[in-house]
Amino acid sequence: MVCLVLCGKLRLVIKEICAITVLANKLCMFVLLFSLARILGVELYGVFSYHYAIVTGIATVVGECLSVALSRYAVLNAEEVNYKTSLGLMLWGGIIVAALCVIVFLIFPAPASSYGMNPGYLLIGAFFLGFACVCNLTITGLMFSLNASGKWAVALAAHGLLGLLLVVSIAKITGQIEGVILTLAICTLIAPAYGFFTIKKNHFSHDDKGGRESSFFRQIAALLSRSGAPTIAGSMLLGAPVHIVCLMIFAKSSLNVSEVGYFSLFFLFYILVTVLPSSLTSYAIVKLAGRGKSASKLYLMLGLSISVCLPVFLVLSQSYWLCLLGSRFCSKNDLLAYAVLAGGIGLTTTIVTQILHSKNMTRVVFLGSCIYAFVYLLLTVVAGLKGNMLAVDLFRSFVFALAAQIAVLAVLGGRKLVQ
Q: Which keywords annotate this record (predicted)?
């Protein structure tokens, strides 16, 4: 009996370790991207970040929706889930995303740069990176729905550390982005490859059932319908895709490719303020749940305090670390201010959205997303028509769009937030 209890606790600890490792991998990615900006220079980093932002933006919509839908379906339907079909859906989703990335770059190439690059190698790298991102997100979600072992935690750690070391090394050796993108794609497949073969080894034998089976593509279509993946993807279409369109407009109308590099680098501070604390506060709300009706208030207060304190800390301490990114970034404190302001608003928006969803106010959330998309696109188009856009112009459009979204959520859902 004691052994069973200890084993159960160990499995819980392993899952928490895996969650912490995923969070650490995000930090490794931030360090990797900051390092690339310093090694490649702002102009070449602008070309790299254009490809990286679009690939990951498209892949996130598909990868996140498959991760949430398939892992949730595996937990709720443990007896009838078919992992062979789930992984097949993941592979086809990755191939479609990869092909879509290639098509987008053929129609909307990166801004012109003084560096000579091989477009063919860039497209190959973009194809594999899009495929790898979808597989990475999907497999991570599926592994969390299973009884993950300590080996999975090791695979996740190797995934992040090897990616950081190898990609930075290739950037220093070659000084070109073709090899950087392809190496990043290969490293992104480390953890998914281990997870894929683990699931195949432990669960494929249970998927073979007697009786007449439908075709593989019919099984995939049925899984899509039962898991709710299209609905989840639809709810994400006003986020990353809108930002990708605005980034394309900016790249077409920017003063030069360096402005794209400046925007992409400082956009990482928005992600730093928004993504990492939201991951931690998701854990905190579980701890606060036992406080009854006051949980939402405490969760909101926690998020608001982080969304104010973290940006203020980054701005006040910039003289100690900003120039470490490179001498050309020392004077860009206006971009830092816009980025962390957007991060604070974005973090608050994420928390408010979660609370409103829990209170069955999905329509209000959707309306706020529509307002965000409309304002962001409108202001970006207007700035693009004037030409010679600067990074600060796109940041300004982004901040106004987020402010409009949170205003709608606060006005229409304010009563529910304070209950």
A: Cell membrane, Membrane, Transmembrane, Transmembrane helix
